[in-house]
Each structure stands twice: as C-alpha cells, then as structure tokens.
Design brief:
The protein is an alpha+beta fold and 370 residues long. The protein has helices spanning 2-8, 15-26, 31-36, 39-60, 70-77, 90-105, 120-128, 140-149, 155-168, 175-184, 191-194, 206-216, 240-243, 248-269, 309-314, 322-341, 359-369; strands spanning 275-276, 288-292, 295-304, 345-352. The chain folds into 2 domains: 2-171, no CATH class; 177-370, no CATH class. The chain is built from 17 helices and 4 strands. Bound molecules: zinc ion. Residues 230, 232, 234, 240, 244, 246 line the site of zinc ion.
C-alpha cells in the first residue's frame, strides 16, 4: 500500500487535493480486511496502516511535528463532526468492522451446531475492544443469535461512533479549546476540508491550506522556541493573529473584502443582482442591497472569533454559535432603523472564524439555492 501513500505526496498534487485523496480514497482501502478478519489478526496491520496515514497527513499538511503530539494525533483521527480531520483510526475501527460484518451475515450463517468451530473467543475479544459507556451489545455467546433474529442497522457505524464519542472526551477541555472544538462542530466549519477543488473559488493555495490546518489543530503559528510574544505584547497563542490589536483592523478588512467579492460573484452566478454599498470605516450602511422575490434585502457580512477573550469571558464562546448569535444581534440592532426607513429586511450574514455558519446565513443560502 506504500506506493499509493507515496504517490499522494507528489509535488503536483496540491495539499487540498492530496488530503482529500488521503481521507476519501486511502482510508477505505483497509476496511474490507477489517470486516473479514478478527481484530486479533489485523491489529498489527491496523497499527502500521494508522502510522502510514498519520505520517502522510503530517507531510501533506506540512506540520513539521516529530514526534507527533498525542493531542494532535487525536484531532487528526477524530471525525469532522467532532472537529477533527476525519482520518479515522483503523485500530479503533477494526472491532466495529468485524462485528458489523458478522452481524450482517449472521442470518445467512449455518445453524449454531455447524458453527461450533466459529471461535467464540474471537467475538469475545472483538467485544472487549468496544467497552465504552452507553454502548450496549449482546454477550459473545448470544451475539450471532441476536443478530440473526434482528439484524442491527449499520452496526459498524454505531460502534465506531460510540468509540469516537468516547475518545472526544479525552481531548483537553480548557476553555479556549472547548470553544474552538464547539465551533468546529457546527455546520460549515469543515467545508474547506471537504470541498472538491473543481473551480478556483473552491480551491485553497497550499500556504492557506497549511495555515487553516494549523488553526484547526490549535497549533502556534511560529515555533515557540523562537518567538513567544507578538510585537503587540500578547502571548503567541494559536489564534493570536485572530485577535492581535496591531493586525486586527487591516487583516479584518482584507478578509471582509475577499469574502464579500466571493459572495457577490456567487450571487451574480445565481442570476441575482446584488448592489454593493460604498464601504465606510464605521459601516453606516450594510454591505449589499439585493432585490429577492420582490423584497429589498439589506445584507451585511461579518466574521467573529468564538475563542476571543471577550467571547470566553462572557461565556458566549462556550455555547453553540454563541459568538455568531451575539454578532447577529448587534448587527440587527445597528441597522434596524435604516432598514425600517428604506422598507427593507435586514439579514446579517455571520460566520465564526472556524467557518461555522450562523442561522440567518444558513437560511439565506438555502433560500438562494432553492
Ligand atoms: Zn499581536
């Protein structure tokens, strides 16, 4: 299998394309083996496969970490719904795959007498690897009979998810990391990892992809042995450049301009005619006006950072989309009078810095696309 993994590191692959191939094409390669052989036989191969996957990920994402810290390994292997990178560990999956496959085949297997050579010990061993809270599985001696009577639905997925849920709780729960992971679990936060780079607007240059991966993994932007503090005096925490008072004004403006250009281009492609407003420092007017279904909408795009000191102090960062909801509220308050004056509906289009989409933005995108 090594040649496939080596091929992923070909310099003509962008990091975005190579990572997609790693997650979508390489990971399933070992699943059939795990479904058809008991974990006792596959464990060594699974461990080697996991090492191969993680080594490839570290290379593709330019992480320059040797050895790989345990918490980074955990975040890489956690599913995206938990804020990870979806590089599911085969060591964790092997028992789920074997039991899921046995359960699916149970009703087609010969009668129990014919199965006396079926090694009960193998089922017992596989079940022993699935001891996590809230997962109820039959005892080994009743496993096949139960599955034959009532075939369980998607047992591999159920077991693997329970194991991953359990592992998620082992990740450090410091407030900054909790709010970060909470935001990563919201809709939209993993889109940049799953987007197919089939057109320029869906493609990330390598440098941006590496930075986005470091931010998602909460790694410091510079190795701390060289620099510990920013010129602003702030400690160089993983997300410092999201809140740095020296950079903030300029970088926020640049980010806003890029996002707004993309939004305008997507709206025009959808056959709509957004009208950009003149940008002012105080933002007296929202970003765009748009006539939709005979109504005038006022749209304002903004990004908020859920792990900023103020969001953590107020507790907003520890609630799902708490920072985004607060920003929606502030924007609605700000433009309520203007919208009433011009007989328009104001729609705040808010994202969290992880990519998580606030409710009004999701509804707006749904409305545009339907
Ligand atoms: Zn700074």
């Amino acid at each position: 299998m090594e040649p496939f993994f080596r091929a992923l590191r070909h310099p003509q692959f962008t990091a975005q394309a190579a990572f997609l191939l790693l997650r979508v094409c390489a990971l399933p390669k070992f699943n059939y083996t795990c479904r058809t052989l008991p974990p006792r036989l596959t464990s060594e191969a699974c461990a080697a496969f996991d090492r191969l996957v993680l080594r490839s990920a570290v290379d593709i994402l330019h992480l320059e970490l040797d050895p790989l810290p345990a918490e980074v390994g955990t975040l890489l292997t956690l599913p995206m719904r938990h804020g990870g990178f979806g590089l599911r560990s085969m060591m964790d999956t092997a028992s789920a795959a074997f039991l899921g496959s046995l359960a699916t085949a149970a009703r087609h297997l010969p009668s129990p007498e014919l199965l006396r050579d079926t090694p009960l010990a193998r089922i017992e061993h596989a079940l022993s690897l699935c001891q996590v809270p809230r997962l109820r599985l039959p005892a080994a001696n009743a496993f096949l009979a139960c599955a034959a009577r009532r075939p369980p639905k998607a047992l591999q997925h159920v077991i693997a998810s329970a194991i991953e849920d359990f592992r998620m709780w082992s990740v450090d729960s410091a407030p900054g990391l909790s709010s970060h992971l909470l935001s990563l679990r919201q809709t939209g936060a993993s889109n940049w990892l799953t987007a197919i780079p089939s057109r320029p607007e869906h493609s990330l240059p390598n440098g941006d992809f590496y930075l986005a991966a470091q931010l998602r993994l909460r790694l410091t932007p510079c190795p701390s042995i060289y620099v510990t503090h920013c010129a602003c005096g702030g400690e160089l925490l993983p997300d410092h450049f999201m809140v740095c008072k020296h950079l903030r004004r300029r970088s926020v403006t640049v980010r806003h301009t890029i996002l707004l250009q993309l939004l305008v281009s997507f709206l025009r492609e959808a056959g709509l005619s957004p009208i950009p407003e003149l940008r002012t420092d105080d933002g007296e007017r929202p970003d765009l006006r748009l006539y939709l279904d005979g109504c005038l909408l006022m749209l304002d795009l903004s990004v908020t950072h859920p792990s900023s000191p103020s969001a953590l102090r107020s507790g907003r960062g520890l609630r799902p989309l708490g920072a985004a909801r607060q920003r929606e509220y502030e924007k609605r308050q700000k433009y309520a009078e203007l919208a009433a004056l011009e007989d328009a509906t104001f729609v705040p289009l808010v994202l969290e810095s992880t990519g998580a989409l606030a409710e009004d933005l999701r509804q707006f995108l749904h409305r545009i696309s339907s």
